[in-house]
Amino acid sequence: xxxxxxxxxxxxxxxxxxxxxxxxxxxxxxxxxxxxxxxxxxxxxxxxxxxxxxxxxxxxxxxxxxxxxxxxxxxxxxxxxxxxxxxxxxxxxxxxxxxxxxxxxxxxxxxxxxxxxxxxxxxxxxxxxxxxxxxxxxxxxxxxxxxxxxxxxxxxxxxxxxxxxxxxxxxxxxxxxxxxxxxxxxxxxxxxxxxxxxxxxxxxxxxxxxxxxxxxxxxxxxxxxxxxxxxxxxxxxxxxxxxxxxxxxxxxxxxxxxxxxxxxxxxxxxxxxxxxxxxxxxxxxxxxxxxxxxxxxxxxxxxxxxxxxxxxxxxxxxxxxxxxxxxxxxxxxxxxxxxxxxxxxxxxxxxxxxxxxxxxxxxxxxxxxxxxxxxxxxxxxxxxxxxxxxxxxxxxxxxxxxxxxxxxxxxxxxxxxxxxxxxxxxxxxxxxxxxxxxxxxxxxxxxxxxxxxxxxxxxxxxxxxxxxxxxxxxxxxxxxxxxxxxxxxxxxxxxxxxxxxxxxxxxxxxxxxxxxxxxxxxxxxxxxxxxxxxxxxxxxxxxxxxxxxxxxxxxxxxxxxxxxxxxxxxxxxxxxxxxxxxxxxxxxxxxxxxxxxxxxxxxxxxxxxxxxxxxxxxxxxxxxxxxxxxxxxxxxxxxxxxxxxxxxxxxxxxxxxxxxxxxxxxxxxxxxxxxxxxxxxxxxxxxxxxxxxxxxxxxxxxxxxxxxxxxxxxxxxxxxxxxxxxxxxxxxxxxxxxxxxxxxxxxxxxxxxxxxxxxxxxxxxxxxxxxxxxxxx
Length: 777
Known about the structure:
Helix content is 19%, strand content 32%. The chain is α+β, with helices and mostly antiparallel strands. It has an eight-stranded antiparallel sheet. Strands 3-13-14-20-19-16 form a six-stranded antiparallel sheet, with no helix packed on it. A hairpin with a 3-residue loop joins strand 33 (608-610) and strand 34 (614-616). Helix 8 (521-532) runs parallel beside helix 9. Belongs to the glycosyl hydrolase 31 family. GO terms for molecular function: alpha-D-xyloside xylohydrolase; carbohydrate binding. Residues 260-575 form the Glycoside hydrolase family 31 TIM barrel domain.
């Protein structure tokens, strides 16, 4: 929200007040509170008839400093509130020397000079990261009487801002006005399904605004050298999170707000949906599944979208008996004959025609208006109401419906919707409707995820969720929502996914081929490549199916080959998944995350790193032309073995069998033995593909245990010393191989043969060490 009219004036009807100086200080051992008048006080009389801001400063964890600015403190304080996790045993240090105050939390410090005009400086290693200067802390009252607390933090020259959830607008947020407010707006506007009041910059820090309601951002858009954020409230709380690297920032932020759970290994396989409004029954489902098998395309999950239930009755959690007369038998056959997991669509709404509507109304499980009536409308479902997840009994009731489905054989749920939450209602627990609008999705997805964790066991719970807010990353996976079916929509989807990854979310997917409309064969094949080089992969559309043979035979080949490639990459991908769960680093990473020191990577939004070591540049053109940037070093094309030297831009043209997919200089990429499924013993028969090894370095490669639930199955250490490559194995019980990509072995301690991409060395079971003397190209 903009309050000013240019540099000099306020907007009509706006009266703003800003902290001007420090009038008094209350010191505690690990925190302090500043009392800030909104004008300079030179006499006792000036202390009258004027506001005094209370600004509390503390630290919940090393490298994190919290600020809470309050005008009037008498508000009732109705929830909800984000759940935050403080660091056990952490204590900040407060020092005072004359007029200088300092709060230190590890490498991050807050400096305040109580004798100078108002200024909060956040520093690390003697460098000012950002400051709240004049107009940096305050409040504004606008013409309608609403009260807005606000803060402004400085932006340095060349400083770029990222994050704020899954946003499909330009990747770099400078110059944008952003409202953190859940909306069902598709992927082609400024609205977003997943709104997160957290941003980070390329200057080494991030900022989290701890407010579940609407947070309004002006990012170099009102004051071009500032990031302003405001809330309609008497108080504003935010946290400055130090890095110094973007990965460090995300690690600290997710420690504060929650780390992603580790999804089950099978969820990384290919998902196939019935699509949205198309007609389907068991015969159609079987045709799809058999068609994939006949074309040798491995399928991991089959998804039933909305119309598994009867029309006008969403959600009643009951299979349409005319279309699916034997759901339990159908699900059993899908599992036994095709080894599939099953997903079904749900939402948090109860249509009036559903028998559950009367039941939920009778027990008080639906959100109500102030007059006691159930809140209803006809948008989406006729007469639909909203489950009140603030009521523990309603949560239990909803969860019990899901348990019935899991008992029938359902393995996971697509938790659609959760954005269009009314504000003219009364919640069971008295929550503030404005704050609950964004927060509702957290209760919804948490309820479903807890059921799956309880029923399926630890490590087996996974959602396919559309809406989210702060903390939603704990309940993966999330997908990008309703996009159109063209190259532009494919690119905007990627922008949204990279933005979400920089907002603390580790796992992300999208509708392969696009949702609305029908893609051309060219779009479908390129989207298949992109989709199967994402953390999770789902074929899904609205009014047309997404089975590859509906496009052309080449689409079948592309789908088969890239599905099998993803399965071979599972030892590598699941290690990236473990990093997301352990550190908050997303599987799909903006180039900035891996190369913060390369300014050429700071604005890139049409390519990404998949895990630590794979650069992916999807093709967004019908003729196969792609422009992409290669960071410093010798990179190796994963599919062809061609070497590419950076830094620099490249323009290339690719057929549908390939795309820019480059292995990082010196990387060791583990390839699994099987390409039939995502879940298998990844260490057995693993091939370590070594790319342009760097002299004098050792690369550690950890192979997750089968299914990923028991840590690490094997560890390999690859060292280059001059012309000698040595690979040492720990825990490798079965045979394993080393592929020296682009290199020839003059001699080795294991049988060697020439392969298409280089020299292949085979280590029998129990081999702990392989050494080769190389001629490196």
